[in-house]
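Inverse folding, one chain.
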């Protein structure tokens, strides 16, 4: 066996070859300054379809991004084969800062939050007035998620020929939420799309709603070329539809410069991730009144300063009631 003395020469030192043939690891990562900009349209089992210029490109997330996931609506940087040809694969190397996020948890006890959509500026909450019955608590939860994530809400009420819209509209009147009311005939004939479209021009709108309310039917009428499979009949026992949309998909709104994002039907909308103190930001008429609230005020306790603020005429008491109802949604299940 060869022995090395104190004064060995570099040529005498044996270097073990790298069997994998790859480069040594380094903490220095490339900046990818030449990465092309794109928008994530849908995600399917680790493959992300992105819009780059005027073509769709299939990509995968680069390992250097770690656990950070890209979702529909994300603005990303891509490198590699950007031709969009069949069987080609690009690489997402950067996810840009998000202007807004729609997040949810499986339930209120689940600490794992899921980002559903990024960079949308409007949330269309679709609910039927009957068949299935409306679920105001679920609507409340969607409103809280919208306010918390920086999205403006829009109520889309369907099947008005089965039940009047006045009861539900009275419940949300104090919130000054824009709304659209449509009948089944208008929905299935595509006429409802013309009314809803007025609220979508030039905006990125995410559509949410539980199954059977006509959400995907409406999306198909808005973007016929992006035809999605619609829900079958509503279960007569549970009063709920069957999920048919299984992944979010962004579709361009022709001639309007906007985007429609269809999301899977939801049966629950957990709010574990929401800090109740942020919900007050959606009530600019009430927010100044919180200056005299006690420390860590829940805005629903005897010493809350908002009662006096509303009593003095600075805000409508109905608005205060709406705020407290929304804040209480984390304590109730949607079906309560």
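Residues assigned per position:
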């Amino acid at each position: 066996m060869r022995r090395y003395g104190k004064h060995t020469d570099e040529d005498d030192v044996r270097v073990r070859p790298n069997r994998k043939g790859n480069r040594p690891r380094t903490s220095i990562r490339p900046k990818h300054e030449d990465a092309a900009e794109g928008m994530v349209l849908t995600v399917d089992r680790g493959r992300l379809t992105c819009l780059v210029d005027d073509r769709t490109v299939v990509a995968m997330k680069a390992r250097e991004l770690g656990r950070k996931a890209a979702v529909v609506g994300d603005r990303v940087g891509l490198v590699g084969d950007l031709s969009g040809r069949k069987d080609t694969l690009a690489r997402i190397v950067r996810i840009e800062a998000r202007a807004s996020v729609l997040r949810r948890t499986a339930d209120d006890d689940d600490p794992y939050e899921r980002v559903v959509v990024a960079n949308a500026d409007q949330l269309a909450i679709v609910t039927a007035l009957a068949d299935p019955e409306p679920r105001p608590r679920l609507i409340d939860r969607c409103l809280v998620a919208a306010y918390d994530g920086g999205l403006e809400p829009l109520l889309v009420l369907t099947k008005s020929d089965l039940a009047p819209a006045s009861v539900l509209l009275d419940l949300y009147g104090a919130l000054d939420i824009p709304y659209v009311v449509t009948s089944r005939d208008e929905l299935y004939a595509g006429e409802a799309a013309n009314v809803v479209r007025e609220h979508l021009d030039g905006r990125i709108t995410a559509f949410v709603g539980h199954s059977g309310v006509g959400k995907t039917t409406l999306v198909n009428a808005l973007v016929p070329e992006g035809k999605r499979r619609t829900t079958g009949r509503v279960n007569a026992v549970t009063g709920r539809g069957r999920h048919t949309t299984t992944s979010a998909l962004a579709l361009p709104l022709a001639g309007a410069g906007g985007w429609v994002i269809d999301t899977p039907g939801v049966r629950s909308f957990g709010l574990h991730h929401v800090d109740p103190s942020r919900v007050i930001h959606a009530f600019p008429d009430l927010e100044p009144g919180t200056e005299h609230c006690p420390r860590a005020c829940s805005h629903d306790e005897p010493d809350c300063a908002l009662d006096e603020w509303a009593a003095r005429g600075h805000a409508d008491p109905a608005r205060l009631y709406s705020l407290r109802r929304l804040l209480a949604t984390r304590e109730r299940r949607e079906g309560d």
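Residues 81 and 90 are 5 Å apart (CA to CA). The first helix runs from residue 136 to 149.
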